[in-house]
Amino acid sequence: MSAPCCAGQLACCCGTAACALCCKCCPKIKQSTSTRFMYALYFILVTIICCVMMSTTVANEMKTHIPFYKQMCKGIQAGEMCEKLVGYSAVYKVCFGMACFFFLFFLFTIKIDSSKSCRAYVHNGFWFIKLILLAAMCSGAFFIPDQDTFLNAWRYVGATGGFLFIAIQLILLVEFAHKWNKNWTAGANHKQMWSGLLALVTLILYSVAVAALVLMALFYTRSEGCMYNKVLIGVNGGLCLFVSLVAISPCVQNRQPHSGLLQSGVISCYVMYLTFSALSSKPPETILDENNQNITICVPEFSQGLHRDENLVTGLGTTILFGCILYSCLTSTTRASSEALRGLYATPETEVARCCFCCVPDGDGDAEEHVEKRRGQTVIYDEKKGTVYSYAYFHFVFFLASLYVMMTVTHWFHYESAQIEKFFTGTWSIFWIKMVSCWVCVCLYLWTLIAPLCCPTREFSV
């Protein structure tokens, strides 16, 4: 590693310079993107630690292979076999520290409009100092007095924050569906190609939704039993049909000409996904067969074979799940997303139809204003004229995501028996959280359709 690159990394860790890789062949990176990825890296690091703390396999391997393990545990006052560093209570404490870290920065960055202010410099730099602060907060949670009261109170705070995180994602999903339809409809007014694309994508979305409904009816139900599954599949399928009919009804079309089947197709696919996810998370039902032996019903037969290698399923599934959480955090923290939550949208006159309309970066106008060329990766300072995303909103979403991770890793309200190896074992709390999320999503979308009818004097723009 060259001396200029070392100096750059030092300026990033202990100063206000943007972080970048030392490899020259890496593509250019914007300062705003670099900052968000560094916070995401901290989030991933703490999430991995939480998963390790919930793993009995890792705990047993440490006991076996680490010499003087018992003496080390006593030395750091973590219990005879480090029991204070494992289990749901340890995850609660670590996530408490991470949540406090992001909430502190949420308060610290409120109403920052310029990247040249002192608070903005702290937000965009001093990464080593912030890492020490995060580690201190996570460690300090283990010394909170009256642990039982703290854990009970923190559980309800975590559940509230987790539900709020889910609600934000659902609101942004509905906003995404409306934005997609509005963007492509604007293109259809000028080119016939966009009308064809609109019809094709709508057909694909409904085909996927119908296929998912049929497959769930085949694999998650049987002639006897499975009443929960039958009712929920029928109800959710009926809700998808209902919102589709409402979306194209004449009264809705009169008030919202942009309303169509594309939005309801997106919502229908998501409802089918949540229904499948909820049915997969439901505790298995068992009955006695003719030989008086318990057999599992209401689940696909091939899924029972998939769950035999628990380590593979848990590792792959956990990686995908937390990858989705991280993606949700990063896409939920753009300026467009924060404006959507406040009801601010682009006017139809400024809409330009694009295939990748949702990937248009913020603040492109001054992206090339100042470029810092190092020996390694080139950094573009894209916030010279102002911030391209809300710093406070960014930290608030990661604060909620910290609580959501805490509740997810500890199986929500089945925390006492939670283990990362049994992460995909069905529980009723996870089942109902997913099912309620499904219904909330439908209600949010339905409200965007009927709100102009219920409040005709108000302006609604989606």
Summarize the structure.
Helices cover 63% and strands 3% of the residues. The chain has 462 residues and is mainly alpha-helical. A hairpin with a 6-residue loop joins strand 4 (370-372) and strand 5 (379-381).
Task: Explain what you see.
- The chain is built from 17 helices and five strands.
- It has 462 residues and is mainly alpha-helical.
- The chain has a three-stranded mixed beta sheet. A two-stranded antiparallel sheet has the order 2-3.
- A hairpin with a 5-residue loop joins strand 2 and strand 3.
- Helix 5 crosses helix 7.
Question: How is this fold's topology laid out?
Answer:
Layout (H helix, E strand, L loop, with lengths): L2 H12 L14 E2 H23 L2 H10 L3 H7 L12 H21 L9 H7 L2 H14 L6 H42 L3 H28 L7 H21 L2 H6 L5 H21 L3 E4 L5 E4 L3 H6 L3 H22 L3 H7 L28 E3 L6 E3 L9 H19 L18 H27 L8
Parallel strand pairs: 1-5
Antiparallel strand pairs: 2-3, 4-5
Helix pairs in contact: 2-5, 2-16, 5-7, 5-16, 8-9, 8-12, 8-16, 8-17, 9-12, 10-12, 10-17, 12-17, 14-16
